[in-house]
Amino acid sequence: MRQFLFILYLAAGLAATAAPEHLYSLEECCKHAVGNNRSLANARTDVALAAEDEAVAFTRFFPSISLGATGFMAAKDLMRTEMNLSGAAQAYGPALQQLGLMIPERLEVSMMNKGVAADAMATQPLYAGGQILTGRKLAALQSEVQRLRLQMSERDLRQSVAEYFWQICALRSNAATVDTVLRQLEGVHRYTDDYVRAGMTHRNALLQIELKQQEMESQRLQLANADALLRLVLAQLCGLEPSTFDVGMENIAPEDCPRPQTLFVAPADAVETRVELALAERNVRAQELQERMERGKLLPSLAVGAAGMFQNMELGGGMENMKNANLIGFATLSVPVSDWWGGRHSLRKARLERKKAENSRMEAREQLQTDILSAWNSLTEGYAQIEVAERSVHSADENLRLTNDEYRAGTIPLTDYLDAVTLYTQAHNRLTEAVAGYQTRKAAYMSKTR
Predict the structure, then answer these.
(1) Consecutive H or E run containing 317
(2) Is the distance from CB of 41 to CB of 33 less than 8 angstroms?
(3) What domains are defined for the chain?
């Protein structure tokens, strides 16, 4: 029997990791999770990306500037022509010959075989149907939405950490209950063995106690394995090394559970602090801006600008280079006439999307109030379960004490004592689960109301 118990304890020890130097509290776990969690890091990246989009939208207010330059060198002159001078040669040839001059019948002229050109243009929009300003507001709104989503992700992460943390504490409290029962069974086993040796009871009584010990050892091993698995999951959430991670045991006691009335917040007030409602309101605002954007596409746009040009062309043929520089100011007015046909439908669609967003906001408010009320009911129910479990524990403790005394006195059979052990274990486990469940429900309620 002792060898069997030793093997089970050894297996439970191998299932658990070595005790770390530092035990993390719930607040420390939440802090590390917020700082190291990869999903939360991606959410922060989304916030940074939205900020960059907002900066890009702001640059739309500035002039649009473009620069250009061209240089060329041709294998042949670009401007080539051939002139027929036969008529002039016949008319003026004799007179020019007396002067020692001669007119050719055909004359070839070519120029411009290389040159450079440069230009610069700046355009400043004065009015674009409000699209530039609306686009800036949409980008700023999207940046705010990403920050709200980050806040919601952080809240949900803290809630998950709290759930795993209290589950681990509940498992360890249950393991402590099993250890207490095992110590009691070991004592009962010793004096039952004395009874068997004295011929006062049958040997099967020892076997029944040993079976109960083995059952409790099996529970202890299951609890240790579940503890190791939950610690692994929690370490991953916190971004910590699983092999050196462990949590500090919080006191699983009813007196550490505040009454629900001290935490109550009116649902109508609590709903105003919910991130989900803020997101629904931002969605309505986004649809309003999108409707304004569609309307702006149907309005005229006005812009002014200036352009500068410089040319330096080598003419050749003994001619001086052609240089030219100029500055031009201009204004443009664009009226999207043909866009009105399809644009009217796009505007109607945007209005319908806005109404849809408004309905979703009203529905979100109602659902959030229901969610908060449900969390409150769950909290009060959890506290009532603690009170019931406390009474059960008191009864189970007293029952185990009396049956232990009566069994030692030989007035009740062993099965009654073993039944009392089972009731004792179940009652303490229910109390542990009720307290841990209440702590989890409290964390959930507070995240929904604060």
Answers:
(1) none
(2) no
(3) 25-68+115-297+306-449 (1.20.1600.10)
